[in-house]
Specification:
about 120 residues; mainly alpha; 2 helices; rod-shaped
């Protein structure tokens, strides 16, 4: 150490430089710690969003499947009803072909009765 290194100005300058270096190290450490915390939080948020997205997709798929099932069941009921109506209509046609006079008499009686009911 020479005489110039031990002057009060040099000692103060060295202490300032050492303090500045410690502050830089502490700042770097704090920034690194904050980065880690932010990355962990971001990972946690991302994981939560992925989980929520998966649940929403699952619910949407289930709703779509249910809607398709209900639609299919509705189509089956409609087809069964139409088949039944066609069968009844065919029975009525067969009856009219087999017994035309009785069919006309029944139609006249039903018309007269309906007229009486509606007239009131």
């Amino acid at each position: 150490m020479n005489k110039q290194d031990s002057t009060p100005e040099t000692l103060a300058s060295n202490r300032i430089d050492e303090s500045a270096e410690r502050i830089k190290q502490a700042t770097s450490s704090a920034v690194a710690s904050t980065k880690d915390a932010v990355e962990r939080a971001a990972d946690h948020v991302e994981e939560g969003l992925h989980h929520a997205t998966d649940k929403a997709a699952y619910a949407a798929n289930r709703a779509t499947e249910k809607a398709a099932d209900i639609s299919e069941r509705g189509r089956e009921v409609y087809d069964e009803t139409m088949d039944r109506a066609d069968a009844w209509l065919e029975q009525a046609r067969d009856y009219v072909r087999e017994k035309p006079v009785q069919s006309v008499a029944i139609a006249l009686g039903a018309g007269w009765l309906l007229g009486r009911i509606l007239r009131r």
